[in-house]
Amino acid sequence: MGHPVQERRRDSVRIASASTPAAARPDGSGPSSPWADKRAFLSGFLQHPREVGSVIPSSPWMERRLVRTAALAEARTVVELGPGTGGTTRAFLRAMHAEAKLLAIELSPVFRDHLAQQQSDPRLIVQCGSAEQIAEFLRLHKMPAPDVVISGIPFSTMPAAVADRIAAAVAEVLPPGGRFVAYQLRPHVARFTTPYLGQPSRSLELLNIPPMQVFCWTKRPTAAPGPQG
Ligand SMILES: C[S@@+](CC[C@H](N)C(=O)[O-])C[C@H]1O[C@@H](n2cnc3c(N)ncnc32)[C@H](O)[C@@H]1O
Fold first, then answer.
1. Where are the alpha helices (DSSP H) in the chain?
2. Are 138 and 166 in contact (CB under 8 A)?
3. Per the domain annotation, does 227 fall within a domain?
4. How far is the CA of 158 from the centre of ligand 1 (A)?
5. pTM of the prediction?
6. How many CB atoms lie within 10 A of CB 15?
7. In a domain, 25, yes or no
8. How high does pLDDT run on average in the chain?
9. Pocket perturbation via mutation, ligand 1, pick of 43, 67, 81, 90 by most ligand atoms within 8 A of CB
10. Which of 38, 153, 158, 181 to mutate to test the pocket of ligand 1 (most atoms within 8 A of CB)?
11. Model pLDDT, residue 197
């Protein structure tokens, strides 16, 4: 049986084609300011600590490492799992090609609304739902197989069955040569993903609170269709 919160939210799928730009106030406290992001993120963590998994958003160093690891400048279809309040999303959009598309899948409707309110980039689609539904959402938005999937969702605090379904769903939608980049404090994501995509490369970003491991898988043409042994 699925995680009750995740099951409940999967039913409330809504689409926001992020079209409502919102300017920061002169004091920097407006909806698109870094402080508004941090406040909204902390409030989301306090309400759903296991799903959000971190008290503050990723650092600029972390964002740059993800952009490099994912080779985002070369990608044309990108999926972000767990954009949160959108710091990573904005960094990805800055690095992406003008013709590229980014599908951001966020479980929290509050974070989804926060992100949709402050982003007007026509390359971005913000989708409320679970990462398990990645194939369904790509079909819904008529998007091709992604060149890269980037995940900040906390595999260590979600039920094992959900984590396994997400790893399987990511492996299924990636084409040969496609990348899966996941950043985590703990290595659980590797335990769930390696059976589907093989061994990842790893790096460590110390300039982040907390320091994060960054895993990168590249799907091989011969990747196993399911868990081995
Ligand atoms: C650690 S935060 C990462 C936020 C942002 N990407 C960053 O790096 O600052 C994890 C995010 O994943 C979202 N999340 C957790 N489980 C999810 C799931 N199954 N599907 C989609 N998003 C999920 C949480 O709501 C939260 O926004």
1. 4-11, 34-47, 49-52, 60-69, 87-95, 109-118, 134-140, 160-173, 188-197
2. no
3. no
4. 11
5. 0.86
6. 14
7. no
8. 85
9. 81
10. 153
11. 98
pLDDT-based confidence at 1, cuts 50/70/90?
very low
We report the CATH number of the domain holding residue 8 as 3.40.50.150
Confidence of residue 84 (pLDDT cuts 50, 70, 90): very high
Q: Residue with structure tokens 């043409």? A: 221
Domains: count for the chain: 1
Domain residue limits at 101: 4-18+30-218
The length of the chain in residues reads 229
Asked if residue 223 is part of any domain, the answer here is: no
For ligand 1, say whether the CB of 184 is within 6 Å of any of its atoms. Answer: no
Spatial separation of the C-alpha atoms in residues 229 and 226, rounded to whole Å: 10
Distance CA 69, CA 209 (A): 19
Tell me the pLDDT tens digit for each residue of 26-63: 333 344 577 888 888 888 888 888 887 787 899 999 99
Q: What percent of the chain has pLDDT over 70?
A: 83
Interval 165-218: pLDDT, tens: 999 999 999 999 999 999 999 999 999 999 999 999 999 999 999 999 999 999
CA of 212 to the centre of ligand 1 (A): 14
Quick check: is 23 in a domain? no
4 CA from centroid of ligand 1 (Å): 17
Look up tokens 């990168």; give the residue: 216
